[in-house]
Specification:
CATH superfamily: Vaccinia Virus protein VP39
Number of helices: 11
Number of strands: 8
Radius of gyration: 18 Å
CATH topology: Rossmann fold
Helix content: 40-55%
Shape: globular
Bound molecules: S-adenosylmethionine
Oligomer: single chain
Structural class: alpha/beta
CATH architecture: 3-Layer(aba) Sandwich
Order of helices and strands: HHHEHEHEEHEHHEHHHEE
Distance between the termini: 32 Å
Length: 284
């Protein structure tokens, strides 16, 4: 197995293991936290009644269901994800809706019906491919001529205090995670606009447009500091570092995360900055 294949397999294992479990458990909280980003990417996508849409890496299905409302009874939205637990939860949440379907598969290799979709969409579901050029080349086959792709991904780690502040606090007590290589999959794999453009153009897409969007993310989702600490220790970079740390070191790291978030508390919000790219591309 090549390094890229191993990293890809590790991602699939992660999203079917601890990552999937945390995202299912924190779904409502994460959706509330991400709502300004969801609004930005859905606005750019501008889904129309009657459209056929693929939601790539749809996870627990929140954006899939919002898009299904937008396309109405004459349209259709398919949520595709490689995580059985997350897709299982999405299926339950979407039960009874006629214009939705769910596919458990890998976006890199799924045999799409050619030209089946008007829009390929994703909220943070496209940065985890071991071979992103192969994945986006495969996804391109799913889009009709003249169709469009719109997704959102994180800008650099240092521009995202909502991730950086808890992780740096935890690092006073637990070992650092190995730094990912520049071509490795992960949440910040698409932070570099030149890399995104290179991947997409090599995969047969036009040069993409990347629009920076800066948001304030309430880590506690209206539930204050306790909920913010719970979220920071379950979702994002600090959660991964904690999971891999020796158990006896975790309480001090969690206490440090709490202390680091305290200055951001305003009534029931714990708001820190988030920085994303909204990426738009068409087949070349
Ligand atoms: C950060 S989560 C985002 C989930 C969802 N889009 C959301 O915003 O709540 C990343 C998602 O990408 C999915 N994913 C990762 N690699 C994938 C692949 N190769 N094919 C399909 N889905 C994948 C994961 O299982 C996970 O659901």
């Amino acid at each position: 197995m090549s390094d890229a294949q191993q990293l890809h397999a590790d991602q699939i294992a992660y999203w079917n293991g601890p990552g999937g479990a945390h995202w299912v458990a924190q779904q409502a909280h994460t959706d509330a936290q991400l709502s300004p980003i969801t609004t930005a990417v859905l606005t750019a996508a501008a889904a129309e009644p009657g459209e056929r849409i693929l939601d790539i890496g749809c996870g627990c299905g929140t954006t899939t269901m919002i898009l299904a409302e937008a396309v109405g009874a004459t349209g259709h939205v398919t949520g595709l994800d490689v995580s059985a637990p997350m897709l299982g939860w999405a299926r339950k949440r979407g039960a009874g809706r006629q214009n939705l379907s769910w596919v458990l598969d890998d976006a890199t290799t799924h045999a799409f019906a050619p030209g089946a979709y008007d829009l390929l969409f994703s909220r943070f579901g496209v940065m985890f491919f071991g071979n992103p050029v192969a994945a986006f080349a495969n996804l391109r086959t799913a889009l009709r001529p003249g169709g469009r792709m719109v997704f959102v991904c994180w800008r650099p780690f240092d521009d995202n205090p909502w991730m950086r502040v808890p992780l740096h606090a935890a690092y006073a007590h637990i070992p650092r995670l190995p730094k990912p290589g520049p071509e490795d999959p992960g949440p910040f794999a698409f932070a570099d606009p030149e890399r995104v453009a290179r991947i997409l153009t090599e995969a047969g897409w036009s040069a993409p447009t990347l629009t920076p969007v800066d948001v304030s993310l309430d880590l506690g989702a209206g539930g204050g500091l306790d909920r913010a600490v719970e979220q920071a220790t379950n979702i994002g970079a600090a959660s991964r570092a904690l999971r891999e740390a020796p158990e006896e070191l975790r309480p001090a790291a969690i206490a440090a995360i709490r202390a680091a978030l305290m200055p951001y508390v305003r009534s029931e919000t714990v708001a820190l900055g988030g920085a994303v790219w909204v990426v738009e591309a068409k087949p070349s």
